[in-house]
Design brief:
The structure is a single chain. This protein has 64 residues and is mainly beta. 0% of the residues lie in helices and 39% in strands. The strands form two sheets. A four-stranded antiparallel β-sheet has the order 1-6-2-3, with no helix packed on it. A two-stranded antiparallel sheet has the order 4-5. It starts with a strand and ends in an 8-residue tail after the last strand.
C-alpha cells in the first residue's frame, strides 16, 4: 500500500511515486532515502526526484 512520503524510512529500498499532469507514476528502480536526498538503491547515486508516495520495493497493491 502506498504511504505518504513524509513518513518514508531511511536506508531501505523503496518504490517511489511522483505526480505529474498525467497522474501518479512509480519509478522503475528502487531508491533509498538518505540524509542528503534520494539515492538509486543499486548505484548509490543521488537522483533528482520529488516523490509524493512510497512503498517497500517489491510490495504489490492488495487489489492488483
Amino acid at each position: 500500500m502506498w504511504q505518504t512520503i513524509l513518513n518514508a524510512p531511511f536506508f531501505h529500498s523503496l518504490e517511489l511515486a511522483v505526480l505529474d499532469e498525467d497522474g501518479m507514476h512509480a519509478l522503475v528502480f528502487p531508491c533509498r532515502r538518505a540524509v542528503d536526498g534520494w539515492k538509486d538503491a543499486t548505484t548509490g547515486y543521488l537522483v533528482d526526484v520529488e516523490p509524493t508516495h512510497w512503498r517497500l520495493w517489491g510490495e504489490q497493491d492488495e487489489d492488483a
